[in-house]
Write a structure and sequence with these properties.
single chain, 223 residues, Copper Amine Oxidase, Chain A, domain 1, 4-stranded antiparallel beta sheet, 4 strands, 12% strand, centromere, nucleus
């Protein structure tokens, strides 16, 4: 607008000077040229003013897009941080669950080992009592005790049959998984062996158990 004002002032000065030199026809042509030039300048001015406004709008739009991009980038960063934190928390929880599971397995294993150790100890104690009674049984009852495979003991009675003193009467004994006495074989068979076996489990009186079996063999020898 300042340039247009200066241009109009220069045109007026030129016009005053021009009138003093040229005639009316030249003046009219010059006026027409001036008006055309002025009109072109106005059109051009309006056009560029519009383009400047469009440019300003474009700049504002670009700035708006930049702000949105920054906001989105910030949001993405926050989400990534939250995701990382969630993953860490999940890993910590999984690690804790795994640790707890391992601890439970260790405790269960320790209990199983303790139970097995207790059972093994009980079996060994019973076997020791049996071995300690061996000499007594051999002397008093004419009994021979042999250790056979699978942690079993074989009891062999002699001097029962007065017709054949060397004839053996045998039964085989083991300790089952529950830690109870169990007769696995008996020769010759005795109908009362199950009753004797149940009684020794209740009373834990092993000498009486062996004595009762010998009495049963003796009674059988007289039949």
């Amino acid at each position: 607008e300042d340039e247009i004002t200066l241009f109009e002032r220069d045109m007026k000065e030129f016009w005053i000077e021009f009138k003093s030199v040229y005639g009316t026809e030249q003046i009219n042509q010059t006026l027409s040229l001036r008006d055309s030039c002025k009109e072109s300048i106005e059109v051009l001015s309006a056009k560029w003013s519009k383009k400047l406004k469009e440019g300003d709008l474009m700049i504002d739009k670009i700035q708006e897009y930049n702000n949105e991009i920054l906001q989105q980038s910030k949001c993405i960063s926050e989400k990534e941080e939250q995701l990382t934190e969630i993953k860490l928390n999940e890993e910590e929880e999984q690690q804790k669950n795994l640790t707890d599971s391992i601890q439970e397995l260790k405790e269960e294993l320790a209990k199983q080992i303790e139970i097995l150790s207790s059972k093994d100890k009980a079996v060994k104690e019973k076997m020791e009592r049996l071995c300690k009674s061996k000499v007594l049984f051999e002397e008093c009852l004419g009994l021979e005790i042999r250790r056979i495979p699978n942690e079993q003991l074989q009891f062999i009675f002699r001097h029962i049959d007065h017709k054949d003193p060397d004839k053996p009467y045998t039964f085989t004994l083991s300790i089952n998984e529950k830690g109870d006495y169990e007769v696995t074989s008996c020769t010759p068979p005795l109908d009362c062996i199950a009753e004797f076996q149940l009684k020794v489990r209740e009373t834990n009186n092993f000498p009486a158990f062996v004595a009762n079996i010998r009495k049963a063999f003796t009674a059988l020898s007289y039949k």
